[in-house]
Design goal:
Chain lengths: 291, 318
């Protein structure tokens, strides 16, 4: 009885649902396109306004796709503020932190995953606990330590405190944990040293994790505003985000398009990196989730 | 995870005991330990000096009165009693919580909606195009976003009010009026951060096993039922993770209100972190500012704890 009824029921239900699915699909597409317009709109406005002359920057409606491109604003950013200096500062800070954390976190992540030593789990537990602490909670003591080290108002104030990372260690450890231990054991039998096993066997295999960590650090520190605001005083040491906010304050509303040209310039490295390493950006987002 | 670590630990202990009987093995164990300590040395040193010690110092400082110039004075819990009667600081925590709830709810709901819709698209390039578009705002720094959003939300000349007027709606006093200023902050943060929850949820939805979905389809479950009875329960651990991360970030909101409104109008967008910055780095009350920082930490820990407790009933682990 049921065998004869069941297929027809499915059939009827399927036929009745088919148009609904189509309507749903179209509504879904409309919602997605609306979402994309809202996500991309402000960025497109920023780009097109940066290509307009300052005089017509605030005329509405904007010319969404500028017909005659005016790169004068881009020249103006370099003339009116030391954006080249900001750019260089940002590059120095970001690159050194990325290199530093790659080294410290790869070494420690490997040891926590593969090497046995007393108190390992306790130390790692303390590392995990510090990940919960917001930056604002420790900023005053870090500010004091930075001053004691004579690093106030220098790029070192941003770089040195960021060279180690509990999160980076956690990320690398997770990755090394998945690797087969037999490889290292075999290499040891063949006479490799402890460090040799790490360097020649496992570190080579860790490049996807290293890329993920590097991308996470790049996006985080390239965009950082809070620590530069607190640690830096002289304009010659400013990084891009801090410099741009200063630029906006100094120039006033008369040169919106110049400020926006600076905003676009600051975004270029992130966009380039995203184009070439999109996969690791996505890895970075999902990397933190505990499993 | 913990079970796996335990078995691994006990296994390694087992093997150490076995090896220990052999001559020379004890030296090998010691050498491995030395190697381990050397490997973690750099990370431990940096984390200790720049995170661990600062946590303790911050806690200690919250019991002192200190203006940086004269030596710190021990004041007991006076900073905390003052804190709980300080209307401005308390209101900054209120602002923070209101903004954080608005941000998290919208960010999770919108991220989930967009992820579900993208997930149902069949063409690979459609998925890739939308994924890229929704991720793009994350490539701008919060400072950059604050700058161009400040122009777009300008009450007089801004593009958003222009388009509102074009479709016959009145202008909105976005950053001028206290309530709308809070709404504007929420919208701006969600605009930038929704890509984060979106990417997480897409990854979660992609990992839902197809045989489960096929079984549901054979049983005659429609799109809605499949979504609410199967997909969402299956990705609920991801939703919990996204909620916790979004909440922790939102509780630390600083850049956008600091750059766009300096915490105004009035104190409508003065978040706890802005209040802490003003107390510490502008009024040089480092002890009192540390007390605010510690309270922020405690509140974040409590909220995270509540989320995990609530999740026990709602989250479905496979």
């Amino acid at each position: 009885m049921t065998t004869t009824e069941a297929p027809s029921a499915v059939h009827v239900a399927g036929r009745r649902r088919r148009p609904a699915v189509k309507v749903g699909s179209i509504v879904g597409m409309i919602v997605l396109i609306l979402g994309a317009v809202f996500a991309f709109g402000p960025l497109l406005w920023t780009l097109s306004t940066s290509l307009r002359t300052p005089a017509e920057a605030f005329t509405n409606p904007p010319q969404w796709i500028p017909t005659d491109w005016d790169f004068g604003n881009y020249a103006a950013v370099f003339n009116q503020i030391p954006i080249g200096q900001f750019f260089l500062n940002s590059v120095i800070v970001t690159v050194l932190i990325v290199i530093g954390q790659t080294i410290t976190c790869t070494l420690s992540g490997y040891a926590f995953a593969m090497v046995s030593f007393p108190a390992k789990n306790t130390i790692f537990g303390i590392f995990l606990a510090t990940m919960m602490v917001p930056l604002q909670t420790i900023i005053i003591p870090v500010f004091i330590i930075v001053r004691m080290l004579g690093l106030s108002d220098s790029l070192g104030a941003l770089i040195i405190p960021a060279l180690g990372s509990a999160f980076g260690t956690f990320l690398m450890r997770q990755y090394f944990m998945q690797m087969p231990r037999e490889l290292g054991e075999a290499a040891r039998i063949d006479g490799a040293t402890q460090f040799g096993v790490f360097w020649h066997v496992y570190a080579r295999m860790a490049s996807p994790a290293i890329a993920t960590l590097a991308i996470l650090n790049f996006s985080g520190f390239w965009a950082e505003f809070y620590r530069p605001l607190i640690f830096l005083n002289s304009q010659s040491n400013f990084t891009l985000p801090l410099g741009l906010v200063g630029l906006q304050g100094n120039l006033g509303t008369g040169s919106i398009s110049v400020v926006l040209a600076g905003v676009i310039l600051a975004m270029i490295p992130s966009v380039l990196l995203f184009i070439f390493a999109q996969r690791y950006f996505v890895e970075g987002v999902t990397a933190g989730s505990f499993r | 995870m913990s079970a796996a670590t335990e078995t691994r630990v006990s296994a390694s202990r087992e093997s150490t005991r076995l090896i220990a009987r052999r001559p020379g093995a004890r030296r090998a164990i010691r050498r491995e330990a030395v190697f381990g300590y050397l490997m973690i040395g750099l990370a431990v040193a940096f984390v200790t000096v720049f995170t661990l010690i600062p946590i303790l110092v911050s806690l200690g400082l919250s019991f002192f009165s200190w203006d940086v110039i004269t030596p710190p004075q021990f004041v007991g819990i006076k900073n905390f009693t003052r804190l709980f009667s300080d209307g401005q600081v308390l209101s900054s925590f209120g602002v923070t919580i209101v903004l954080a709830i608005g941000i998290v709810v919208l960010q999770i709901a919108l991220g989930l909606l967009l992820a579900v819709l993208v997930n149902t698209r069949k063409h690979k390039w459609t998925k890739a195009l939308f994924r890229t578009t929704f991720y793009l705002p994350l490539l701008a720094s919060t400072a950059a976003v604050s700058i161009f959003m400040g122009y777009l939300f300008d009450a007089k000349f801004g593009l958003i009010n222009y388009y509102l007027n074009e479709i016959g709606l009145p202008s909105v006093p976005w950053l001028v009026n206290p309530t709308t200023a809070q709404i504007t902050m929420i919208l701006i943060v969600v605009w930038q951060q929704v890509g984060f929850t979106f990417v997480l949820f897409v990854a979660g939805l992609t990992s839902v096993p197809t045989d489960v979905l096929e079984a549901a389809a054979i049983d005659g479950a429609g799109a809605w039922r499949t979504l609410f009875r199967i997909k969402i329960p299956l990705i609920s651990p991801t939703i919990l993770f996204a909620t916790v991360v979004a909440m922790i970030n939102a509780m630390q909101l600083f850049d956008q209100p600091f750059i766009m409104t300096k915490g105004g109008p009035g104190t409508a967008t003065t978040t706890a972190t802005i209040a802490m910055y003003q107390t510490g780095f502008q009024n040089l009350q480092f002890g009192y500012a540390s007390a605010i920082a510690i309270l922020l930490l405690v509140i974040i820990l409590i909220i995270t704890g509540i989320q995990f407790l609530a999740a026990r009933k709602l989250v479905f682990y496979q």
